[in-house]
Design a protein that fits this description.
Helices cover 29% and strands 21% of the residues. The chain has 13 helices and ten strands. It has helices spanning 20-24, 63-76, 88-105, 144-149, 181-184, 189-192, 204-212, 241-244, 256-259, 289-292, 296-308, 311-316, 323-331, and strands spanning 42-43, 81-83, 110-115, 118-123, 128-133, 155-162, 165-172, 221-230, 260-271, 278-288. Strands 1-8-9-10-6-7-2 form a seven-stranded antiparallel beta sheet. Strands 3-4-5 form a three-stranded antiparallel beta sheet, covered by helices on one side. The chain is globular, with a radius of gyration of 20 Å.
């Protein structure tokens, strides 16, 4: 596979773009014409060549620019990466998982040589070459979790399992949909999901926690989640709401197709071998409405999903204030035809 990496920005002048190939492989999150919270977890098997599900950790045309954006966010706010002292081993577990996966899945981009505890890592897209001793943090320029997540797209939480619950005790979070690692660090599963409407009374999180606590090593799982955002901004954190919040008011009927984005998270869940922690990578994908509707099935279905969503969910998903303009734009691409099952284009 040959990848060409975009030179683009996710802030200020917003030069982010999706190639036709990136549009075709976008992880559209709706498998039917309606939406309600569900556990919707499936095995994270490598499926459908060319899709975001082909490899364990997807690397795409946005990789280099996303890592540059992460470095900017961390320079402004180092607390976006935190790890409680007891999570150091989990950080090493996760480093191993990512390095082995990337070296095996993208050998033209990444190389890992291992001679006992002496490791040699090469990341060609970012120009990184590092020799280090596995499990010895003094041989890396920063902790193992920070080191590898500065080179891995998406956000990453490491969850400690104890007392019949999961606890968010470590993470790298710079591209989140309006939640804060600094606020959630040390919280349990129900505490950090407390703001989500309807899901609690539906019992979604009780079922999800039961499932996640039984994830086994070598049997990862995945799900898709989604929200809406104005402009292709990765950092939509509460800490920076003063920057991105007012942008919601910049949508007009004339620019909604260009400025309104569907934001999809590919969430995966991995049991780590030494620490027994659960790794929770959250990979963010962005697509402008004008690009999404080039896939007719998606244009029809998104119109129907957003049209019928309850107001409280539309508010939580971040688009209630602009829903009339969004629906007005999408309606012209909904001819009333039936849509086929599943998330992939026809």
């Amino acid at each position: 596979m040959t990848l060409r990496f975009n030179d683009e920005t996710f802030r200020d002048d917003y030069t982010y773009r999706n190639s036709p190939e990136a549009i075709a492989r976008f992880p559209f999150p709706f498998d039917q014409d309606s939406y309600m919270y569900s556990v919707n977890i499936e095995p994270h098997r490598r499926t459908r060549a060319g899709s975001v599900f082909e490899h364990r950790f997807d690397v795409d045309e946005h990789y280099v620019s996303e890592m540059r954006d992460r470095a900017i966010t961390l320079a402004e706010d180092p607390l976006r990466c935190q790890s409680l002292p007891h999570m150091d081993l989990a950080g090493w577990d996760f480093l191993e998982l990512v390095m082995v996966s990337k070296a095996e899945d993208y050998p033209e981009l990444f190389t890992l040589h291992r001679d006992g505890d002496r490791w040699h890592w090469i990341n060609r897209p970012l120009g990184i070459e590092q020799r280090f001793t596995f499990l010895d943090s003094t041989t890396l320029p920063c902790g193992p979790l920070e080191y590898i997540t500065r080179q891995t797209q998406g956000d990453h939480a490491l969850l400690d399992q104890r007392e019949g619950n999961l606890w968010m005790d470590a993470g790298m979070v710079t591209s989140q949909a309006d939640w804060s690692l600094d606020f959630d660090i040390g919280m349990n599963f129900f505490e950090w999901h407390a703001p989500v409407p309807k899901a609690h009374e539906l019992g979604v999180f009780q079922r999800a926690l039961k499932f996640l606590m039984n994830v086994q090593q070598g049997a990862p799982s995945r799900r898709l989640n989604w929200t809406m955002t104005v402009n292709p901004r990765l950092d939509t954190s509460p800490e920076n709401y003063h920057k991105w919040g007012p942008e919601k008011r910049t949508i007009t009927p004339e620019n909604v197709g260009q400025k309104q984005y569907l934001r999809v998270e590919l969430q995966t869940f991995w049991r780590l071998p030494r620490s027994n922690a659960l790794a929770f990578p959250i990979r963010c994908y962005l697509i402008a409405l004008e690009d999404l509707v080039t896939v007719p099935k998606w244009g029809r279905r998104l119109h129907r999903v957003l049209r019928d969503l309850p107001d409280e969910l539309a508010t939580y998903k971040g688009f209630q204030v602009n829903r009339p303009m969004i629906l007005g734009y999408l309606a012209q691409f909904d001819d009333g035809a039936e849509t086929s099952p599943g998330i992939f284009p026809d």
